[in-house]
Design a protein that fits this description.
This protein has three domains: about 15-20 and about 200-255 and about 320-400, L,D-transpeptidase catalytic domain-like (Beta Barrel); about 35-120 and about 135-165 and about 420-440, no CATH class; about 255-315, no CATH class. It contains 13 helices and 16 strands. It has helices at about 15, 55-70, 80-95, 100-120, 140-150, 155-160, 165-175, 180-195, 260-275, 275-280, 305-310, 365-370, 420-435; strands at about 125-130, 205, 210-215, 220-230, 245-250, 255, 285, 295, 315, 325-330, 340, 355, 360, 385-400, 405, 410. The strands form three sheets. It has an eight-stranded mixed β-barrel. The two termini are about 40 Å apart.
């Protein structure tokens, strides 16, 4: 159902109703600041964190080195080399001079800030429909101030480097299982996408690779269900895109606005069968996508001419054949993608549920609505296309996870959209900018 619509039956928060654009994003391939300086230079100005000042600092350093030593499984190619440099600097600092401690502080600070920037880097390919769903990006200077001000540097470093439960579950499982080849590629690509998810709060993860949807509260998975996603037969134009946005409302008894690429099918059937076809399917020809659109008499429409020019606008009234089912869940995005009920529940019995025109059909819209309404009663209305706000705006992350570990061991999904190679290429380009080629083996080349 990829079609841009503007439907506003009520007054919504400004963020929900404003026209959404994708703000400029920092380049995923920009070099880390410490790599733009000479080796051994201070990370930000003359400031460093005090890793060698006391036992807490050494504990923070040990944690950082251990995390970096295995960070190649996260796609951070220079991590193991940084870990080796840290261990060497720490060994000298423990038995050497004050100058050795200062050197260790510089090495550790640069390695920490570089790794944090890697973890905070924009996820390639994601469309941000609402700025509220953007991940926090904290500057190097702020991290230096925070690391100096906190009572425990070790606690701060561990907290900063611990991401959301989806990410940590997959990362931990990958370290235990040590995947190789294509499985490792899927882990690295999926971790890159999972870095966009929040640590806390209520949010939804819509995964077009596993074709399931996951609901989280305070970072904990509380429910999940099957979904139907964009089909593959007609190429990337119908793939469900990766989007980060926010759900503000549910739409009851929705229209289905027929996508442009399907209007031709309706036109051909009307020309062959006339009004009987339109009436039987509940189709209406309208003059605009506005909420107050005027319904046109189909006999006054230039079906062949308007169809060729792409000017026909057709919607389907609520009813048993409506592709939206009984409810849809909009979220701002320029692709016209949303979640909705379906008139074809039999699709959920299929192993491959890539059957939609890009939007996402949910297995149990009432259960999902009850969760969005925080366990309270779901509003009831007979009005057509009636929008009702949910109690709390809820971030939604439409993503593509070819590897996940919700229940312990890693589960892998088929890369039907062939997206992993693009994500790995972006990671490779970034790694080549921040480390010598000998220290940055290419990903996905086994």
């Amino acid at each position: 159902m990829k079609i841009a619509t503007f439907l506003s039956g009520l007054v919504l928060p400004a963020a929900a109703m404003a026209q959404q654009t994708t703000p400029p994003q920092p380049s995923f391939q920009s070099a880390l600041p410490s790599q733009q300086q000479a080796p051994g230079a201070l990370a930000v100005g003359n400031a460093t964190l005090e890793w060698t000042a006391d036992a807490d600092g050494y504990a923070a350093a040990t944690f950082l080195a251990a995390r970096l030593a295995v960070s190649d499984i996260e796609g951070y190619a220079k991590g193991p080399a940084d870990a080796a440099a840290i261990n060497q600097a720490l060994a000298a600092a423990r038995t050497g001079s004050e100058a050795d401690k200062q050197t260790a502080d510089r090495v550790l600070t640069a390695a920490f800030l570089d790794f944090v920037e890697f973890l905070q880097a924009p996820v390639p390919g994601v469309i941000y429909g609402d700025d509220w769903a953007r991940p926090d990006r904290i500057s190097r200077g702020v991290h230096l101030k925070n690391g100096t001000a906190v009572p425990s540097l070790a606690a701060y470093v561990e907290r900063t480097l611990t991401l959301n439960s989806f990410y940590e579950g997959l990362r931990t499982a990958a370290m235990q299982e040590a995947p190789t080849g294509e499985d490792l590629d899927k882990v690295i690509a999926s971790l890159a996408r999972a870095r966009a998810f929040p640590k806390r709060g209520r949010f939804v993860v819509v995964d077009s690779a596993s074709q399931r949807m996951y609901m989280y509260e305070q970072g904990r998975l509380v429910d999940h269900m099957k979904i139907v996603v964009g089909k593959t037969e007609e190429g990337p134009q119908l793939y469900t895109p990766e989007i980060a946005s926010v759900i503000y409302r549910a739409t009851f008894n929705p229209y289905w606005h027929v996508p442009d690429h399907l209007v031709k099918n309706v036109t051909n059937r009307y020309l062959a069968e006339g009004d009987r076809y339109l009436n039987g399917k509940g189709y209406e020809v309208i003059d605009s996508w506005d909420v107050n659109a005027k319904v046109l008499d189909p006999k006054t429409v230039d079906w062949r001419g308007a169809g060729r020019r792409g000017e026909l606008k057709i919607r389907q009234r609520p009813g048993p054949t409506n592709s939206m089912g009984n409810m849809k869940f909009n979220f701002p995005n320029p692709e016209g993608i949303y979640l909705h009920d379906t008139e074809k529940p039999e699709y959920f019995d299929l192993q491959n549920r890539a059957k939609s025109n890009g939007c996402v059909r949910v297995e149990d819209y009432e259960r999902f609505a009850k969760w969005l309404y925080k366990g309270g009663p779901i509003p009831q209305t007979d009005q057509t296309e009636h929008h009702i706000l949910i109690p709390e705006p809820t971030p939604v992350y439409v993503t593509y996870m070819t590897a996940h570990a919700h229940d312990g061991p890693i589960a892998y999904s088929q890369d039907r959209y062939q997206k992993d190679a693009t994500t790995l290429a972006a990671l490779n380009a970034r790694n080549q900018l921040v480390a010598p080629s000998a220290q940055a083996p290419a990903l996905g080349m086994d």
